[in-house]
Design goal:
Helices cover about 5% and strands about 45% of the residues. The chain is mainly β.
Protein backbone atom coordinates (compact mmCIF):
# COMPACT_ATOMS: atom_id res chain seq x y z
CA UNK A 1 0.00 0.00 0.00
CA UNK A 2 2.87 2.36 0.81
CA UNK A 3 4.36 1.80 -2.66
CA UNK A 4 0.99 2.60 -4.23
CA UNK A 5 0.67 5.80 -2.17
CA UNK A 6 4.19 6.78 -3.15
CA UNK A 7 3.39 6.29 -6.84
CA UNK A 8 0.13 8.25 -6.59
CA UNK A 9 1.80 11.05 -4.62
CA UNK A 10 4.55 11.29 -7.22
CA UNK A 11 1.99 11.62 -10.01
CA UNK A 12 0.09 14.29 -8.08
CA UNK A 13 3.27 16.20 -7.36
CA UNK A 14 4.28 16.05 -11.02
CA UNK A 15 0.93 17.59 -11.94
CA UNK A 16 1.15 20.18 -9.14
CA UNK A 17 4.56 21.65 -9.91
CA UNK A 18 4.96 20.58 -13.56
CA UNK A 19 8.24 18.82 -12.91
CA UNK A 20 10.68 18.64 -15.82
CA UNK A 21 14.43 17.95 -16.06
CA UNK A 22 15.07 21.26 -14.31
CA UNK A 23 13.87 19.90 -10.92
CA UNK A 24 17.06 18.22 -9.75
CA UNK A 25 16.48 17.52 -6.02
CA UNK A 26 13.32 16.57 -4.11
CA UNK A 27 12.45 15.40 -0.59
CA UNK A 28 8.89 14.20 0.06
CA UNK A 29 9.55 12.39 3.40
CA UNK A 30 7.76 9.30 2.04
CA UNK A 31 9.98 6.91 4.02
CA UNK A 32 8.98 8.48 7.34
CA UNK A 33 7.27 6.44 10.05
CA UNK A 34 3.60 6.14 10.99
CA UNK A 35 4.29 8.17 14.13
CA UNK A 36 7.00 9.37 16.49
CA UNK A 37 10.10 9.27 14.24
CA UNK A 38 12.34 12.21 15.14
CA UNK A 39 14.16 13.92 12.31
CA UNK A 40 17.59 13.05 13.71
CA UNK A 41 16.71 9.37 13.04
CA UNK A 42 15.23 9.94 9.58
CA UNK A 43 17.13 8.95 6.44
CA UNK A 44 15.44 9.52 3.09
CA UNK A 45 16.44 8.78 -0.52
CA UNK A 46 18.93 11.69 -0.44
CA UNK A 47 20.56 10.64 2.85
CA UNK A 48 20.21 11.34 6.55
CA UNK A 49 18.69 14.50 8.01
CA UNK A 50 20.18 16.07 11.12
CA UNK A 51 19.14 18.32 14.01
CA UNK A 52 20.89 21.31 15.57
CA UNK A 53 19.79 23.16 18.72
CA UNK A 54 20.19 26.82 17.71
CA UNK A 55 19.28 28.62 20.95
CA UNK A 56 18.04 28.27 24.53
CA UNK A 57 15.66 25.37 25.20
CA UNK A 58 13.64 23.98 28.09
CA UNK A 59 13.75 20.45 29.46
CA UNK A 60 10.84 19.31 27.22
CA UNK A 61 11.32 21.20 23.93
CA UNK A 62 9.09 20.75 20.89
CA UNK A 63 10.42 18.10 18.48
CA UNK A 64 10.83 17.79 14.72
CA UNK A 65 9.14 14.55 13.56
CA UNK A 66 8.94 12.80 10.18
CA UNK A 67 5.70 10.83 10.23
CA UNK A 68 2.17 10.33 8.92
CA UNK A 69 0.65 12.06 11.92
CA UNK A 70 0.58 15.11 9.61
CA UNK A 71 -0.05 14.14 6.00
CA UNK A 72 1.35 16.21 3.15
CA UNK A 73 -1.31 17.93 1.03
CA UNK A 74 -1.60 20.14 -2.03
CA UNK A 75 -2.35 23.86 -1.66
CA UNK A 76 -5.80 24.64 -0.31
CA UNK A 77 -6.35 21.25 1.38
CA UNK A 78 -6.96 21.02 5.13
CA UNK A 79 -4.49 19.10 7.29
CA UNK A 80 -5.07 15.52 8.44
CA UNK A 81 -3.25 12.30 9.24
CA UNK A 82 -2.42 9.84 6.47
CA UNK A 83 -4.95 7.40 7.92
CA UNK A 84 -7.89 9.82 8.16
CA UNK A 85 -7.79 11.22 4.62
CA UNK A 86 -5.95 10.84 1.35
CA UNK A 87 -2.69 12.78 1.39
CA UNK A 88 0.81 12.65 0.02
CA UNK A 89 2.30 10.61 2.86
CA UNK A 90 4.50 11.66 5.76
CA UNK A 91 5.78 15.17 6.43
CA UNK A 92 8.46 16.95 8.43
CA UNK A 93 6.57 18.68 11.26
CA UNK A 94 6.84 20.09 14.77
CA UNK A 95 5.12 18.24 17.64
CA UNK A 96 5.53 18.03 21.41
CA UNK A 97 8.09 16.27 23.57
CA UNK A 98 7.54 12.47 23.72
CA UNK A 99 7.26 12.62 27.52
CA UNK A 100 4.37 15.10 27.30
CA UNK A 101 2.04 14.80 24.26
CA UNK A 102 4.46 13.49 21.67
CA UNK A 103 3.85 13.31 17.93
CA UNK A 104 0.29 14.51 17.34
CA UNK A 105 0.90 16.03 13.91
CA UNK A 106 1.64 19.75 13.54
CA UNK A 107 0.32 20.44 17.03
CA UNK A 108 2.63 21.81 19.70
CA UNK A 109 2.83 22.60 23.41
CA UNK A 110 3.01 26.41 23.69
CA UNK A 111 4.08 26.14 27.34
CA UNK A 112 3.29 28.55 30.14
CA UNK A 113 3.53 25.95 32.91
CA UNK A 114 7.29 25.53 33.19
CA UNK A 115 8.18 24.08 36.58
CA UNK A 116 4.69 22.63 37.00
CA UNK A 117 4.19 20.30 34.02
CA UNK A 118 6.70 20.89 31.21
CA UNK A 119 9.15 23.48 29.88
CA UNK A 120 8.79 23.40 26.07
CA UNK A 121 10.97 26.40 25.18
CA UNK A 122 12.38 25.51 21.75
CA UNK A 123 14.95 26.75 19.25
CA UNK A 124 16.06 24.00 16.85
CA UNK A 125 16.69 23.46 13.16
CA UNK A 126 16.01 20.34 11.04
CA UNK A 127 18.75 20.11 8.39
CA UNK A 128 18.81 18.40 5.02
CA UNK A 129 21.56 16.11 3.76
CA UNK A 130 24.20 17.76 1.57
CA UNK A 131 22.76 18.77 -1.80
CA UNK A 132 24.97 18.64 -4.87
CA UNK A 133 24.29 21.68 -7.07
CA UNK A 134 27.20 21.20 -9.47
CA UNK A 135 26.18 22.45 -12.91
CA UNK A 136 23.07 24.18 -11.51
CA UNK A 137 22.53 27.94 -11.59
CA UNK A 138 19.79 30.38 -10.56
CA UNK A 139 18.39 27.77 -8.19
CA UNK A 140 14.94 28.14 -6.63
CA UNK A 141 13.67 26.40 -3.49
CA UNK A 142 9.98 25.35 -3.41
CA UNK A 143 8.00 23.56 -0.69
CA UNK A 144 4.49 22.96 0.61
CA UNK A 145 3.75 23.92 4.21
CA UNK A 146 1.40 24.91 7.01
CA UNK A 147 2.46 27.41 9.69
CA UNK A 148 0.91 29.26 12.60
CA UNK A 149 2.17 29.75 16.19
CA UNK A 150 2.40 33.21 17.77
CA UNK A 151 3.70 36.04 15.60
CA UNK A 152 7.50 35.95 15.59
CA UNK A 153 7.85 34.41 19.06
CA UNK A 154 6.49 30.96 18.08
CA UNK A 155 7.42 30.80 14.41
CA UNK A 156 9.02 28.85 11.59
CA UNK A 157 11.77 29.97 9.23
CA UNK A 158 13.99 28.59 6.47
CA UNK A 159 17.80 28.63 6.49
CA UNK A 160 20.55 28.04 3.94
CA UNK A 161 24.13 26.82 4.19
CA UNK A 162 26.65 27.06 1.32
CA UNK A 163 29.40 25.13 3.14
CA UNK A 164 27.94 21.80 4.22
CA UNK A 165 26.43 23.18 7.43
CA UNK A 166 29.39 25.13 8.80
CA UNK A 167 27.61 28.47 8.49
CA UNK A 168 23.91 29.23 8.13
CA UNK A 169 21.93 32.30 7.05
CA UNK A 170 18.22 33.13 7.16
CA UNK A 171 16.63 32.50 3.78
CA UNK A 172 12.98 33.37 4.48
CA UNK A 173 10.23 33.48 7.09
CA UNK A 174 7.15 32.05 5.34
CA UNK A 175 3.80 33.83 5.76
CA UNK A 176 1.39 32.27 8.24
CA UNK A 177 -1.12 29.99 6.50
CA UNK A 178 -4.86 30.15 7.05
CA UNK A 179 -6.86 27.79 9.26
CA UNK A 180 -9.79 25.61 8.18
CA UNK A 181 -13.09 25.69 10.06
CA UNK A 182 -12.13 22.32 11.55
CA UNK A 183 -9.15 24.00 13.23
CA UNK A 184 -6.65 22.20 10.99
CA UNK A 185 -4.11 24.17 8.97
CA UNK A 186 -4.77 24.79 5.28
CA UNK A 187 -1.78 23.75 3.18
CA UNK A 188 -0.04 26.24 0.93
CA UNK A 189 3.17 26.48 -1.08
CA UNK A 190 5.91 29.04 -1.39
CA UNK A 191 9.35 29.47 -2.90
CA UNK A 192 12.46 31.62 -2.93
CA UNK A 193 15.64 31.89 -5.00
CA UNK A 194 18.81 30.64 -3.32
CA UNK A 195 21.78 33.02 -3.02
CA UNK A 196 24.31 33.01 -5.85
CA UNK A 197 26.70 31.06 -3.60
CA UNK A 198 24.54 27.98 -4.33
CA UNK A 199 25.43 28.11 -8.03
CA UNK A 200 27.65 25.18 -9.07
CA UNK A 201 28.12 24.31 -5.37
CA UNK A 202 28.39 20.69 -4.18
CA UNK A 203 27.89 21.55 -0.48
CA UNK A 204 24.45 23.14 -0.15
CA UNK A 205 22.10 22.41 2.76
CA UNK A 206 18.58 23.61 3.59
CA UNK A 207 17.28 23.93 7.16
CA UNK A 208 13.87 24.46 8.75
CA UNK A 209 13.91 26.21 12.15
CA UNK A 210 11.22 26.35 14.84
CA UNK A 211 11.21 28.62 17.92
CA UNK A 212 8.77 28.60 20.88
CA UNK A 213 9.21 31.03 23.78
CA UNK A 214 7.18 28.94 26.30
CA UNK A 215 4.77 31.74 27.26
CA UNK A 216 1.64 29.60 26.96
CA UNK A 217 0.31 31.60 23.99
CA UNK A 218 0.16 30.08 20.52
CA UNK A 219 -2.20 28.57 17.99
CA UNK A 220 -1.90 25.30 16.05
CA UNK A 221 -0.73 24.31 13.55
CA UNK A 222 2.96 24.61 14.38
CA UNK A 223 5.15 24.11 11.28
CA UNK A 224 4.92 21.28 8.75
CA UNK A 225 6.87 20.93 5.49
CA UNK A 226 6.48 18.58 2.52
CA UNK A 227 7.51 18.14 -1.12
CA UNK A 228 10.71 20.19 -0.90
CA UNK A 229 12.37 20.73 -4.28
CA UNK A 230 15.27 22.58 -5.88
CA UNK A 231 15.01 23.58 -9.53
CA UNK A 232 16.60 25.70 -12.20
CA UNK A 233 14.62 28.08 -14.45
CA UNK A 234 12.56 26.74 -17.32
CA UNK A 235 9.58 28.22 -19.09
CA UNK A 236 7.70 24.92 -18.72
CA UNK A 237 7.73 25.07 -14.92
CA UNK A 238 4.70 26.60 -13.22
CA UNK A 239 6.16 29.01 -10.70
CA UNK A 240 3.87 31.46 -8.88
CA UNK A 241 5.28 34.92 -8.15
CA UNK A 242 4.01 38.47 -7.95
CA UNK A 243 5.31 42.03 -7.69
CA UNK A 244 3.85 44.64 -5.35
CA UNK A 245 3.97 48.40 -5.86
CA UNK A 246 4.57 48.69 -2.08
CA UNK A 247 4.59 46.54 1.04
CA UNK A 248 3.41 49.29 3.38
CA UNK A 249 0.39 51.54 2.98
CA UNK A 250 -2.11 53.62 4.90
CA UNK A 251 -5.54 52.46 5.96
CA UNK A 252 -8.21 53.12 3.30
CA UNK A 253 -5.60 53.04 0.52
CA UNK A 254 -4.66 50.54 -2.18
CA UNK A 255 -1.57 48.63 -3.38
CA UNK A 256 -1.12 47.35 -6.94
CA UNK A 257 -0.10 43.70 -7.39
CA UNK A 258 1.15 42.24 -10.68
CA UNK A 259 1.18 38.54 -11.60
CA UNK A 260 4.79 37.72 -12.60
CA UNK A 261 4.36 33.93 -12.59
CA UNK A 262 5.97 31.69 -15.20
CA UNK A 263 4.53 28.62 -16.91
CA UNK A 264 1.15 28.03 -18.52
CA UNK A 265 -1.98 27.82 -16.37
CA UNK A 266 -5.73 28.15 -16.98
CA UNK A 267 -6.29 31.09 -14.64
CA UNK A 268 -5.10 32.93 -11.55
CA UNK A 269 -6.66 34.82 -8.65
CA UNK A 270 -5.48 37.34 -6.06
CA UNK A 271 -6.91 36.93 -2.55
CA UNK A 272 -6.66 38.81 0.74
CA UNK A 273 -9.33 38.29 3.44
CA UNK A 274 -10.55 41.62 4.80
CA UNK A 275 -9.37 43.59 1.76
CA UNK A 276 -11.31 44.55 -1.36
CA UNK A 277 -10.11 43.59 -4.85
CA UNK A 278 -12.14 44.99 -7.73
CA UNK A 279 -10.79 42.57 -10.35
CA UNK A 280 -9.06 39.69 -8.56
CA UNK A 281 -8.57 37.67 -11.78
CA UNK A 282 -6.77 40.35 -13.80
CA UNK A 283 -3.24 41.71 -13.56
CA UNK A 284 -2.36 44.21 -12.32
CA UNK A 285 -4.92 44.12 -9.50
CA UNK A 286 -5.63 46.92 -7.03
CA UNK A 287 -6.00 45.60 -3.47
CA UNK A 288 -7.59 48.09 -1.05
CA UNK A 289 -7.25 47.84 2.71
CA UNK A 290 -10.07 49.33 4.82
CA UNK A 291 -8.49 48.22 8.09
CA UNK A 292 -5.04 48.62 9.64
CA UNK A 293 -2.82 45.67 10.58
CA UNK A 294 -0.58 43.05 8.98
CA UNK A 295 -2.11 41.41 5.91
CA UNK A 296 -1.04 38.69 3.49
CA UNK A 297 -1.94 38.94 -0.19
CA UNK A 298 -2.04 35.56 -1.97
CA UNK A 299 -1.78 34.67 -5.63
CA UNK A 300 -3.22 31.30 -6.68
CA UNK A 301 -2.56 29.61 -10.04
CA UNK A 302 -5.18 27.16 -11.41
CA UNK A 303 -5.08 24.36 -13.97
CA UNK A 304 -8.10 22.16 -14.51
CA UNK A 305 -9.87 23.95 -11.66
CA UNK A 306 -7.17 22.90 -9.15
CA UNK A 307 -4.66 25.16 -7.38
CA UNK A 308 -1.25 24.17 -8.77
CA UNK A 309 0.95 26.82 -7.16
CA UNK A 310 0.71 29.95 -5.03
CA UNK A 311 2.76 32.90 -3.81
CA UNK A 312 2.42 35.26 -0.84
CA UNK A 313 3.35 38.87 -0.09
CA UNK A 314 3.07 40.30 3.43
CA UNK A 315 2.00 43.95 3.73
CA UNK A 316 1.73 46.27 6.72
CA UNK A 317 -1.22 48.68 6.81
CA UNK A 318 -0.76 51.73 9.05
CA UNK A 319 -3.83 53.25 10.77
CA UNK A 320 -5.00 56.47 9.15
CA UNK A 321 -5.89 59.28 11.57
CA UNK A 322 -9.59 59.88 12.13
CA UNK A 323 -9.71 63.27 13.88
CA UNK A 324 -12.88 64.41 15.65
CA UNK A 325 -13.68 68.10 15.24
CA UNK A 326 -15.17 69.91 18.22
CA UNK A 327 -16.65 73.42 18.32
CA UNK A 328 -16.13 75.86 21.19
CA UNK A 329 -17.76 79.19 20.40
CA UNK A 330 -16.46 79.88 16.92
CA UNK A 331 -13.27 77.84 17.28
CA UNK A 332 -12.98 74.45 15.61
CA UNK A 333 -10.31 72.09 16.93
CA UNK A 334 -8.97 68.55 16.70
CA UNK A 335 -6.62 66.81 19.17
CA UNK A 336 -3.03 68.07 18.86
CA UNK A 337 -1.76 64.56 18.04
CA UNK A 338 -0.71 64.92 14.43
CA UNK A 339 2.31 66.12 12.47
CA UNK A 340 0.52 68.43 10.01
CA UNK A 341 -2.86 70.19 9.70
CA UNK A 342 -4.73 72.01 6.93
CA UNK A 343 -8.21 73.51 7.41
CA UNK A 344 -10.60 73.89 4.47
CA UNK A 345 -13.72 75.92 3.76
CA UNK A 346 -15.58 73.68 1.35
CA UNK A 347 -12.92 72.54 -1.13
CA UNK A 348 -10.66 75.57 -0.62
CA UNK A 349 -7.69 75.40 1.76
CA UNK A 350 -7.70 78.26 4.26
CA UNK A 351 -4.42 80.18 4.04
CA UNK A 352 -2.42 80.01 7.27
CA UNK A 353 -4.88 77.60 8.96
CA UNK A 354 -2.29 74.91 9.62
CA UNK A 355 -2.61 74.25 13.35
CA UNK A 356 -4.88 71.97 15.36
CA UNK A 357 -7.51 74.73 15.75
CA UNK A 358 -9.19 77.35 13.57
CA UNK A 359 -11.49 80.25 14.51
CA UNK A 360 -13.94 81.21 11.78
CA UNK A 361 -15.61 84.58 11.29
CA UNK A 362 -18.10 83.54 8.58
CA UNK A 363 -20.29 80.45 8.52
CA UNK A 364 -19.21 77.70 6.15
CA UNK A 365 -18.75 73.98 5.64
CA UNK A 366 -15.36 73.37 7.25
CA UNK A 367 -13.03 70.42 7.09
CA UNK A 368 -9.49 69.43 7.97
CA UNK A 369 -6.84 67.11 6.58
CA UNK A 370 -4.29 65.86 9.12
CA UNK A 371 -1.11 63.87 8.65
CA UNK A 372 0.26 61.21 11.01
CA UNK A 373 3.23 58.95 10.23
CA UNK A 374 2.77 59.64 6.54
CA UNK A 375 -0.95 58.77 6.56
CA UNK A 376 -3.62 61.40 5.96
CA UNK A 377 -7.09 61.60 7.48
CA UNK A 378 -10.07 63.80 6.64
CA UNK A 379 -12.79 65.18 8.89
CA UNK A 380 -15.65 67.52 7.92
CA UNK A 381 -17.68 69.74 10.25
CA UNK A 382 -20.54 72.16 9.61
CA UNK A 383 -21.50 74.61 12.37
CA UNK A 384 -25.10 74.51 11.05
CA UNK A 385 -27.48 71.60 11.59
CA UNK A 386 -27.03 68.68 9.19
CA UNK A 387 -30.34 67.07 10.14
CA UNK A 388 -32.53 69.75 8.55
CA UNK A 389 -31.11 70.13 5.06
CA UNK A 390 -34.52 70.05 3.39
CA UNK A 391 -36.52 71.42 6.27
CA UNK A 392 -37.30 67.79 7.15
CA UNK A 393 -34.98 65.19 8.63
CA UNK A 394 -33.28 63.61 5.61
CA UNK A 395 -31.32 60.38 5.29
CA UNK A 396 -28.84 59.99 2.44
CA UNK A 397 -27.69 56.54 1.38
CA UNK A 398 -25.73 54.84 -1.38
CA UNK A 399 -28.25 52.65 -3.21
CA UNK A 400 -26.13 51.08 -5.93
CA UNK A 401 -22.55 51.17 -7.21
CA UNK A 402 -20.43 49.64 -9.92
CA UNK A 403 -16.90 50.25 -11.20
CA UNK A 404 -17.70 53.68 -12.68
CA UNK A 405 -20.96 54.98 -11.19
CA UNK A 406 -23.09 55.18 -8.06
CA UNK A 407 -26.69 56.06 -7.17
CA UNK A 408 -27.65 58.09 -4.09
CA UNK A 409 -31.12 58.06 -2.54
CA UNK A 410 -32.90 60.03 0.19
CA UNK A 411 -36.03 59.26 2.17
CA UNK A 412 -37.45 62.73 1.43
CA UNK A 413 -37.18 64.29 -2.08
CA UNK A 414 -34.80 67.24 -1.92
CA UNK A 415 -36.65 70.56 -1.52
CA UNK A 416 -33.82 72.57 -3.03
CA UNK A 417 -31.13 71.83 -5.59
CA UNK A 418 -28.19 70.02 -3.92
CA UNK A 419 -24.53 69.89 -4.92
CA UNK A 420 -22.90 66.44 -4.77
CA UNK A 421 -19.11 66.44 -4.53
CA UNK A 422 -16.87 63.35 -4.41
CA UNK A 423 -13.39 63.64 -2.85
CA UNK A 424 -10.69 61.04 -2.36
CA UNK A 425 -9.26 60.25 1.08
CA UNK A 426 -6.75 63.10 0.78
CA UNK A 427 -9.41 65.70 -0.05
CA UNK A 428 -8.69 65.82 -3.80
CA UNK A 429 -11.76 66.63 -5.93
CA UNK A 430 -12.88 63.70 -8.11
CA UNK A 431 -16.20 64.85 -9.59
CA UNK A 432 -19.31 66.96 -8.95
CA UNK A 433 -22.98 66.47 -9.80
CA UNK A 434 -26.25 68.40 -9.29
CA UNK A 435 -29.14 66.78 -7.43
CA UNK A 436 -32.27 68.34 -8.93
CA UNK A 437 -34.93 69.77 -6.63
CA UNK A 438 -37.86 67.39 -6.07
CA UNK A 439 -35.87 64.24 -6.91
CA UNK A 440 -35.20 61.44 -4.38
CA UNK A 441 -32.36 59.85 -6.38
CA UNK A 442 -29.32 60.98 -8.33
CA UNK A 443 -26.92 58.93 -10.45
CA UNK A 444 -23.25 59.92 -10.79
CA UNK A 445 -21.39 58.44 -13.76
CA UNK A 446 -17.85 58.45 -15.08
CA UNK A 447 -16.08 57.66 -11.79
CA UNK A 448 -13.00 55.96 -13.24
CA UNK A 449 -10.68 56.43 -10.27
CA UNK A 450 -9.05 53.40 -8.56
CA UNK A 451 -10.73 51.40 -5.81
CA UNK A 452 -10.36 52.94 -2.36
CA UNK A 453 -11.99 55.19 0.24
CA UNK A 454 -13.89 58.29 -0.97
CA UNK A 455 -15.95 61.03 0.69
CA UNK A 456 -19.34 62.06 -0.75
CA UNK A 457 -20.40 65.60 0.25
CA UNK A 458 -24.06 66.62 -0.28
CA UNK A 459 -24.68 70.35 0.30
CA UNK A 460 -26.70 73.45 -0.43
CA UNK A 461 -26.33 77.06 0.71
CA UNK A 462 -27.30 76.15 4.26
CA UNK A 463 -25.54 72.99 5.34
CA UNK A 464 -23.83 69.74 4.32
CA UNK A 465 -24.11 65.96 4.78
CA UNK A 466 -21.19 63.56 4.40
CA UNK A 467 -21.11 59.85 3.44
CA UNK A 468 -18.00 57.63 3.36
CA UNK A 469 -17.82 55.33 0.30
CA UNK A 470 -15.46 52.38 -0.16
CA UNK A 471 -15.23 51.93 -3.92
CA UNK A 472 -14.68 48.28 -4.87
Amino acid sequence: MKQLLTLISSLLLLNAINVSAQVFWTESFETGAATGLEVSSYSGPNGAWSLTVTGSEGTEPNRWYVSCQEAGQLSGVCGSTCASSFGLGATLHVGSDPAWIGDNGASYDAGGLCGIIACPQTDRRAQSPTINCIGKYNIRLKFYYILNGQGTTDDGSVYYSPDNGTTWSLLMTPAKTTTCTSGQGRWDSTGINLPSSANNNANVKIGFRWVNNDDGVGTDPSFAVDSVSLRTPATTIIDASMAASATTACEDSCITFTNTSTGTVDSFKFSCPGATIATATTSPASVCFPNAGNQTVKLYLYSGGVIVDSASTAVSITPSPRPTITLTGTTLSVPALYTAYQWYNGLTPIAGATSSSYTYTTMGAFGIIVDSAGCRGVSIYNPLSVTNINGTASEYKIAQTNNSSLTLVTNVPVTSTMNVTILDATGKLITTETWTKGQSTVQINGITTPAGMYIIRISNDHTVAVIRWMKQ
